[in-house]
Amino acid sequence: MKIGIYPGSFDPVTKGHLDIISRAEKLFDKLIVAVMVNPDKQSTFSASERVEMLRRATSSLPNVEIDSFDGLLAEYAKIYHATAIVKGLRALSDFEYEFQMALTNRKLNADLETIFLSTNAENMFLSSSMVKQVARFGGDISPFVPSCIAKDIQQRLLQEREAKRESNQ
Ligand code: PNS
Fold it and tell me: Which atom of ligand 1 is nearest to the CA of 41?
């Protein structure tokens, strides 16, 4: 059974991520989308919120499983006997960091390949941080995130901004 892992912060999942997931799941018998829980990195959405949003967004894809992890990706891949890690590349600027991670992961787990998928042209500019910025200022994020989660993200970020405003007054 060929297992692929698509790791990331997914804070929150965007249409760019979903495009990579739907293309990558065709390459494996099972694709695990692994939400990274990093205690040193402040995330906007909790790990369980990010997992839940991903589950909703990928509910029509039977080969896709959503999980979270808080250790080394190379070790996580060993546990699941994964064949490869999948990463999406948006632009040349992504490449250096991604290449560094791919080499580190292969040093830690010699059997682990990293496969890079190029994003679709319309998702080149898309990032979770940009989505959050638009949502916090009340902009329409529906072109950027899966439609089933757009409203929840928008509401949550507007509420958060209101709460911050009130605490600053
Ligand atoms: O969506 P992101 O934030 O670009 O994802 C980065 C992620 C989660 C893939 C990366 O930080 C990661 O693999 N973290 C796990 C820790 C690890 O294995 N580090 C060593 C390899 S660089």
Answer: 3
25-38 residue pLDDT tens: 999 999 999 999 98
Ligand 1 atom closest to Cα of residue 11: 1
Q: What percent of the chain has pLDDT over 90?
A: 86
SS3 97: helix
Which residue's alpha carbon is nearest to atom 17 within ligand 1?
Answer: 72
**CA pair distance 168, 149, nearest whole angstrom:** 29
The percentage of the chain sitting over the pLDDT mark of 70, rounded to a whole number, equals 100
List Cβ neighbours of 7 (8 Å cut-off, separation of 6 or more).
Answer: 33, 34, 36, 69, 73, 76, 85
pTM score, whole prediction: 0.95
| Cα–Cα distance for residue pair 118/116, rounded to 1 Å | 6
